[in-house]
Amino acid sequence: MSTERPRIAPLSPPYSPEASAELERWMGRAATMEPLKLFRTLARHLPLAEAMLPLGRYLLSRRLSVDAHDREVVIERVCARCGSEYEWGVHAVVFGAAAGLSDAQLQATAIGGCTDPAWNERERLLVRLVDELHDTGHVSKELWSGLASLWSAEQLLDLLVLAGWYHVICYVTNGALVPHEDWQAHFPAPGPPPTPGHEP
């Protein structure tokens, strides 16, 4: 766990009316917890936060064409490959179990590869997708063929954008050194970097 001071300090209450309204949009009106430190960091630049919210909201909504389980496999793997313990740990707590990820699968997103026994054949394809995009910026023909046999063109577009979006989020958390939440999960030992998911 990093003990470094944040490079861009999250907003602290009392918030301005404009920041308070934006944080409410990010958290949802029904939220009872303090706004996430990531959101409070983004709220330092309200035009940026306002621009980012629609896509972020879509990717976590029921409008996304892939189910929550597939979504969280991709998100957790992206966050682990990027070394963003903040975002990995927040998603592990808030979405992991609810999306059907077991403890073994969460651990495998951080320190396993696509051959980890925690994964079934479908999930292995998702891990490989994240890893190939992370390592090369491309998807091999062989992997794409496997993906296209299980997911539609619309779903594949969602998966590609999902992986890219969480790179953006990880760049913010890592670059700005967003402080950890008190309640988030932490990478399992020995921690990142995980084994690449695709075979040599």
Question: How would you characterize this protein structure?
Answer:
- With 200 residues, the protein is mostly helical.
- The protein has helices at residues 17-27, 37-42, 46-59, 68-81, 85-96, 103-111, 121-136, 141-148, 153-175.
Features:
single chain; mainly alpha; 2 domains; 9 helices; globular
Describe the structure concisely for a colleague.
This protein is mainly α and 200 residues long. It has 9 helices and no strands. The two termini are 31 Å apart.
Layout of strands and helices, then pairs:
Blueprint: H1 17-27, H2 37-42, H3 46-59, H4 68-81, H5 85-96, H6 103-111, H7 121-136, H8 141-148, H9 153-175
Helix pairs in contact: 1-3, 4-5, 4-6, 4-7, 4-9, 7-8
Number of helices: 9
Count of individual beta strands: 0
Given helix and strand content, the structural type is mainly alpha
Distance between the termini: 31 Å
> According to CATH, what is the class of the largest domain?
Mainly Alpha
